[in-house]
Amino acid sequence: MSDVTGVLVVLGALAVLAAPGLLRLKEAYRLRQRETVEDALKVLIELGEQRPANMADILAGRLHLSRRAALRLIQLLSERGLLRVEDDHVRLTPLGRALGLHVVRAHRLWECYLSDDAAVPLKDVHRLAEKAEHHLSPHDVRRLEARMGYPRYDPHGDPIPREGDEEVDRPGTPLTAWPVGTPARIVHVEDEPESLFAQVLAEGLTPGTQVIVVERSPQGLHLQADGNDIWLATVVASHVHVAPVPQDLPQTTGNMTLAEVPEGMPVKVVGLSPEVRGLLRRRLLDLGFTRGAVVEPVLRSSFGRGDPTAYRVRGTLIALRREQAQHIFVEPVNQAHQEEHHENADENARAHTVNT
Fold first, then answer.
1. 199: exposed, middle or buried (C-beta count within 10 Å: 0-12, 13-18, 19+)?
2. Is residue 262 located within the same domain as residue 234?
3. Is residue 65 situated within a structural domain?
4. What is the pLDDT of residue 341?
């Protein structure tokens, strides 16, 4: 065998050995490109129409691309029939909009699953959902939605589009633009960048929390939330969106929690903390801790600093740990209601004595 033939044989053998690796690299590249395309469609869904130059800058920032790569990405989306440029604006085609809405649905429903069922800390759910959203088929998303009870909002307060929707609702007003002295309810907390999101969470500001802007200055905002004074830098406050407090929503700001109520004092439930989600929230509601229910601490454990405590609610004794009772907002009942409550409790006790 000549030297040339030997070289060719060796090269052929190396090519055979390298083929599986090359296929894996090609598949990894294809998967990464698909994820980038879907991420770009999700951005377009969330932000709406933009000028091409502005969209290139936005995609570059959100997807961590160079501006040149972002322009190539816009061209790729156009070639695949997912968007078109009309009147100097980037617009999604029906196909692009449908795929983008699917990715948004998958992301936000998976965030609900992570937060409610998997008990993943809120600071981590966005990062984990960013990976899972690309692997959920429409059938998977429908099953997940049914399992989660068809939630309307994700843990950050973003609305979850229904299957067949053509638009996604935008969050409320940035906290930096909200009038001083007007009560508001947090409806959305922007989860990117993670550093600012972590600062918002550290102050206990989550969707559902009721706040009042006390003072606004160039440096930041002075807020009151759940009886606490909070100062937020302007750049951090801009990531919090609020809306008017619905008339039928309990005012929890300044209310005591059930964990603070002394033994023997009847109180009325005004609502549950927005931090209570998923199985724990459903359990508390099933046990009778619904809005308007009268609750009375009747017995504290002699161990563990009075933890748990037995509460009388709707004629039944329920034991809750302090960490659970802290999520139930209550207010004192009026005198007439208190006397009625004690009369009912006495009647229940007499009935129990007769039966036994």
1. middle
2. no
3. yes
4. 47
Phi first, then psi: what are they for 17, rounded to 5°? -65, -35
By the 8 A CB rule, do 83 and 73 touch? Answer: no
Decide if 302 is inside a domain.
Answer: yes
Check whether residue 268 and residue 343 sit in a common domain: yes
Residues 240 and 279 in one domain: no
* Average confidence (pLDDT) over 216-241: 85
Give the three-class secondary structure for 81: coil
The 10s digit of each residue's pLDDT in 66-77 is 989 988 988 898
Checking 264-267 for CB contacts under 8 A at 24+ apart, the result is 264/296, 264/297, 264/298, 265/296, 265/297, 265/332, 266/294, 266/295, 266/296, 266/333, 266/337, 266/338, 266/341, 266/342, 267/294, 267/295, 267/296, 267/330, 267/331, 267/332, 267/333
* In a domain? residue 120: no
How far CA 170 is from CA of 97, 161, 188, 244, in Å, comes to 16, 11, 9, 15
Give tens-digit pLDDT for 84-100. Answer: 887 777 788 999 999 99
210 and 264 inside one domain: no
What does the pLDDT read at residue 356?
34
Domain of residue 75, residue span? 16-92
308 within 8 A of 319, measured Cβ to Cβ: yes
Q: CA 209 to CA 315: how far, in whole Å?
A: 31
List C-alpha distances in Å: 119 to 247, 277, 279.
Answer: 31, 9, 10
Contacts with 262 (C-beta within 8 Å, 6 or more apart), sequence order: 297
Q: What is the pLDDT of residues 136-186, one digit of tens each?
A: 999 999 999 888 878 888 887 778 888 888 777 766 888 888 999 888 888
Whether residue 285 lies inside any domain: the answer is yes
Helix (H) or strand (E) holding 342: helix 335-355
The structural domain count of the chain equals: 3
Q: Are residues 86 and 20 in the same domain?
A: yes
Q: Are residues 262 and 203 in the same domain?
A: no
Flag whether pLDDT at 354 surpasses 50: no
Check whether residue 282 and residue 347 sit in a common domain: yes
> Residue type for 231, please?
W
The domain that holds 40 is classified in CATH as 1.10.10.10
